[in-house]
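Suppose a classmate hands you a notebook page containing two proteins, each written out with its sequence and a corresponding row of structure tokens. How would you begin to make sense of it? This section walks through that situation. The first entry is reproduced here exactly as it would appear on such a page.
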Amino acid sequence: MMMNRRPIHLFLYGLCSLVILLKVESFNVGITYVETAVAKGAVCLDGSAPAYHFDKGFGAGVNNWLVHIEGGGWCNNVTNCLQRINTRLGSSKQMVKQLAFSGMLSNKPQFNPDFYNWNKVKVRYCDGASFTGDIEAVDPATNLHFRGARVFNAVIEDLLAKGMKNAEYAVLSGCSAGGLTAILHCDNFRALVPSSTKVKCFADAGYFINGKDVSGVSHIEAFYNDVVNTHGSAKFLPAGCTSKMKPGLCFFPQNMAPTIQTPIFIINAAYDSWQIKNILAPGVADPHGTWHNCKLDITKCSSTQLQTMQGFRLEFLNALNGLGTSPSKGFFINGCYAHCQTEMQETWLRADSPILDGKTIAKAVGDWFYDRSPFQKIDCPYPCDKTCHNRIFDPQENPSPTTYGTRSNDFERIKNFNRNILTVIFLHVALS
């Protein structure tokens, strides 16, 4: 008896179609190690050289630079930092040699019209403190190097030598902990590049707030305080903030944002999935797992949980007031359950991308950057925005401030991979 081969043919057709789609939307970029940084003590947690991925600009963008910082949480004590040294988040020895660029890092005008031909750099994140630490002493028992601030300066120095010293435009951006890096380092970046360069910053999912969790405790405040103390970050944080409050509080954008002089644009979901999972409802505040399903999928939240999340949204919007109202500060705050929306093509710029006030994130950021029009928009509360790409997480995942970023992005891509395969197969069946 002959087997029905049609389902297999459909699957292979869908798989091939999706591979082609992903190839079109992204491209691989090789790794560069900053070996000269080692002599300066500008190293990852394990003492290895910093690294980045660099795609050279071309045409009209040859003298424009986009420096994007990778995310990956933080480590707040020796034990947590030691857990990182055998991973890409603590050692360049563990980093992949090729990294896919898409979204804001795309080199195709249809996917990234305002920045496609720029010099694009993705800086790998390996210090665990948003590149703020600098402790000279190294304990031989652990061999941990807390040198994030030195790493940042060394990478920028290397890029300047490779042509950024001639930059007409330069942007510092980042996602998650990298988004926080872009906020904390925005003025520092401005000071490191030539004074003739037009500099602005973008922060994607980096506006972490000092909110209380569902048990009424601010665990994130204690956590950030430990990060700052462990890495010796206090001396790097803005004096205009640390002179008024303890340094750990100046790790929160809401407290140090008023000190930022360089133009900056904030891209954030009002229901940032990382913040909901780790600030509002961390496991320590939810010992019975009441929030487990809700955190995995917002459509699984009860009415009471949604009400609590609406309260968190208002708290986030109140914290956003720290930015001020100057048109040099822009923001795109959509009502989605998401985290990091500039690195993936589907949320940066595509036919089905999130829309706010009639604009995609790419359009809003581009218009603001080139002074075509200001943009300070806040979305309506969930679930009114039907353009959202709300995230659904792996049930086995148990993220924390120390581990987030190692698995969830991979799962997001797998989820999108499967969804696109099913879409292609469905269309093939419908048209057959």
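The notebook's second entry, a different protein, reads as follows.
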Amino acid sequence: MDVRSDGIQVRSDKLPAPVVPRTRLQVWFVRVCSSILLWTFLVQLVAFGKLWHPLFVSNITNRISQVTGIPLSLNVEESIQSTPLLPARNYSSNGYLRVSCNGGLNQMRAAICDMVTVARLLNLTLVVPELDKTSFWADPSNFDDIFNVKHFIDSLRDEVRIVRRLPKKFNRKYGFMPFAMPPVSWSNEKYYLEQILPLIKKHRVLHFNKTDTRLANNGIPVYLQKLRCRVNFQALKFSPQIETLGYKLIRLLQEKGPFVVLHLRYEMDMLAFSGCTHGCTKEEADELKQMRYAFPWWREKEILSDQRRSQGLCPLTPEEAALTLQALGFNNETQIYIAAGEIYGSERRLATLREAFPMIVKKEALLSPEELKLFRNHSSQMAALDFMVSVASNTFIPTYDGNMARVVEGHRRYLGFKRTITLDRKKLVELVDMHQNGTLSWDEFAAAVRLAHEKRQGQPMQRRAIPDKPKEEDYFYANPHECFCEGMNCNDSLSHNNSSKVI
């Protein structure tokens, strides 16, 4: 009964709500939802921090990755796509820049970063780059087969206007003939402003038909160097089909524990190009020589293999790689992923390496033929899978300093100076020969190998510049140190004397 204000009692049909205790299912549901919200917030926080200061959160992402088994250092880049679009840069375009990249995947990747930077410098509209289809690899892949085009365009809209194709009025079938040329290699911004910009204004469309190493390593303004990094580390996301399979490879490897990626560049094209035949039969050496002569752009024909090897200009053989890994302290329980195409000599040449390291795998062994079917005969897409695994590995060891080795090294530096052992091949072949002829015992050999590589493990260091010899100086994409710190001067955060221990 209720009592009114005038004192009369009235019946009330409203009963107090019964108190229902929470069930275990409800408690579990609340906890799950809270955990999802917390992890979502944490991943977004990491993504934001990575975008603005990658080294600040590198330790956090490494710890999360160790706990969850998920390669957050790579997923961070994936999460950038969900960030709000920055306002488009408003500028009056001086014309269109069309580029045809040449070379393999990582040579083209670096070239794309350079061409975006040139377009920004000259206030140009960049056409989505064309990829090489006529080189040795003859990969028919287009840009959008390898990279996420929408993300590429959207993520750089505050710096450069990028279009998928030229306007129709600049099409050949309408009688327009674009001006094509290769820019001069290792050029700085003065060359592009004084010699290229006038050509653009005259012709409206300029076609760079070669793009490799067309921008200098050093002497470039810091804002342009940082833009090269932004394109490389943030804008060039792989296509969804590549990322899906790449993350699966990484997960399969991480489930079995830490793993080493050995970039074993002992492939037919590399051996023919370099003229390195150490360990090959006479028939194989003749086959490699014939291949070198078959390609007119491989200018150097007569090559003394032993001399080149002694100068450190040959990729390590599988046998030399096995000795080196053992000397560095890796044992027969080490999980090793071989990032490479078909090894020359196939399983016969891999026998020694497999005997020393039984846990050797390649993507072909981890993935089914059906999963790899779409990637067959597409060398750049296969290389993209190896690239993802290489960046995510605990240790990366290239046996030759080609484009992939250097670009992966730089990417790993950017992600917190992850361990990358760059081999001193000249010193190594000398030590290997001394050990095999009995001059050095195993203990002496192993100690010498470790000593030679104490300071070659991806530590922070200044990029070496040789003003008159740009081909001999350190490659920008292997050590883009301008991108590792805030402000205009990075020297305080770099040191020539840093070292890390060898396991």
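A careful reader of the second entry would note: The mean pLDDT is 85.
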